């Protein structure tokens, strides 16, 4: 197809790098509050009815939200096949843990209130807690590991090998900096979940959510700042050696990569990217104030801004790298050497341009239909709730 | 490469995929049946149809959630367990998966929440539209997944790129309109419709046998049997279409599932049953029907269908041709831009057979050093397990025809005998509930096991596709999946049975008031009822 040559490969690569960010942020903004709410569930809801209220705030929307995650996986597969191949096989047991937690979640939502037994319901509440808290933590840990560099190398056939046995591979992910990143992500999503509950609930549940959310926001700001300082002084960055053809073939081994310097060198190279961390800090500060004051809609929006800033800051800091290798820097995956072909990127872009606006439109419509607070009367009165 | 890791990876993929497909067919079919019921409700305004919609909708929900939960695993498992596969064909295979998310899964998952929570929040017509969008999303989802799977069976519209060491898409159009994918899509969704019809009929028959919810159950059987009749015809016709396309795209699979050892003079005979013997390369106690195989496979009386033995010989030739491509590839990889043009030319000429050279990787690290004996062994590996395929295929087809018979009987009885079903037929309907699932799982077995030793037919061997994991990795996740999935299965079955036992919430009073008004209108309007009120 000649059409695909309308847009140059390097442009397509940058567009898909941005779209990858959009999908991850979309996932964090929507399913992020589902995870936050899941992790908050046992603490903000004391009685069964209260917990049902909490679950029903996300009951009708979590399924759609979760598709951001599935679509993120699919889009990485289609647009960045080497990233999909190396990261998911490398983080094998961590991925399995995330999957197991995420599988528990839908089942928990749907099945929890189908039996009256208190033990049954309490059990599912903790399953929902795990389904929210564990992925929220592990996604951050994964991002931390990516910043540190991951121990993989590619063979001449571009087959990926990950160093270590099954034990060190999993436990090896829990490096101090990565754990700190995990805390950033968990506390950020707890704050986001609390902002959602502030909007959708009232009374004691809302008050508890606002209290926990305030603390979570403060923790998120402090750990995010700490992670920045750590990156500046304690983590070695990566850089490309020599001229890298932005239109070159997607073969990471064709480019030379070296370690050294700091990731934060990106901020002197492209000073404008400082907007991302600023958005992160301002967003958190405003969200925390909003939670304390009991503002509803604006708090959620500030929280979204914070998440957008924090996630963008990671991508912008690392650009053009997407998965650096600590054991064989030349195997590192970057925007310029790990994409799909021009044809595939173009076809996928056409699809995204058509369908993403449609998705956003109907998702907005669904949220509009469901607008308003979830109350105890509503839940106990109708047959249409969890 | 550790064969253990490959075998365990295959086991895990087979297990999680077949488990996922326990829920998919019911979602595909029940979403449409529920949408049909709700449409009848909106058109007639009769409360019984709303009760039906809600009841079957609640069973749909219990099933749907596990389909979604187990689908998460599928989306990520390629990267986790099949990382070289993901690298090698991600440029083509990833696209339909991503489009599935964009076009289909978002639609179904976003609206399914409104289906359950939106009854009191929107108009009847709006809710009906939501239900249809859920059904549309589910079925579009199947379309894209089968385009992806169809490409693994018949890899069209793609070409190997030596610079990136992978297959790259040359024509999205060819991938989309791959004949194998199209036949498979209709075959698979039809199988889902049959599954849902048999399920609805079986559960409804049980109510009638128990003397419960009779009016609701009879109407359910009527809708399901009409829908199921069309679907069961379609499933067999499109299954035949799949067989026909396999005769020129996947000759080895076709020969293996028919246990055709030798090429016969056209038109070939069809082996109805028998005991295939791989060692002796013959089928014992075969019951044969002349001409039929040739007719199904080629739709002609003159075209030959190649047998397994000839195909193995052809595979040897392809391996030797693939070795030329492999040798050229090694030069291209070291010389890159400085590769002599004749080497490039040799590569282009033989690159279609490159995958066959990779079959040797099972025996030697460098395929170029393979002996003749190893080449013969690798060629022999292209024959999948004939015995299991032969029987799986026959059981599936037998079940397919029996569904047609059942559907015809129930559809006729529903329409011509005023929905008065005899008790033996109702008992039969209950007994056959599990059968469509057996047929569907066998169908996937035939498709995937029949494609071995390849993940992508003729392009990439399964042995090469797997991630470089350890046996310990695999054992941990296998144990994890088995435990998690078993618990979920027990819970799901428990809830399904509980909700079936509980039955629909029938508002008898509401129905009677409606009937009285309806009768009244009939009298006062000279026999003409106003359907909507």
From TrEMBL, chain A:
Transmembrane segments: 14-41, 83-105, 126-150, 170-191, 212-233, 272-293, 305-326, 346-367
GO cellular component, one term: cytochrome complex
Listed GO MF terms: electron transfer activity; metal ion binding; oxidoreductase activity, acting on diphenols and related substances as donors, oxygen as acceptor
Keyword Hydrolase: no
Keywords noted in UniProt: Cell membrane, Electron transport, Heme, Iron, Membrane, Metal-binding, Transmembrane, Transmembrane helix, Transport
GO biological process entries: aerobic electron transport chain
Membrane topology of this protein: Multi-pass membrane protein
Pfam families: Cyt_bd_oxida_II
Localization per record: Cell membrane
Similarity-based family: Belongs to the cytochrome ubiquinol oxidase subunit 2 family.
Protein name as catalogued: Cytochrome d ubiquinol oxidase subunit II
Automatic annotation (TrEMBL), chain B:
Cell location: Cell inner membrane
Source organism: Pseudodonghicola xiamenensis
Membrane spanning stretches: 20-43, 55-72, 92-117, 129-147, 185-209, 221-239, 391-412, 424-447, 467-491
Gene Ontology BP annotations: aerobic electron transport chain
One Gene Ontology cellular component annotation held by this UniProt entry: cytochrome complex
Record carries keyword Metal-binding: yes
Family, as annotated: Belongs to the cytochrome ubiquinol oxidase subunit 1 family.
Name assigned to this protein: Cytochrome bd oxidase subunit I
InterPro entries: Cyt-d_ubiquinol_oxidase_su_1
Principal subcellular localisation of the protein: membrane
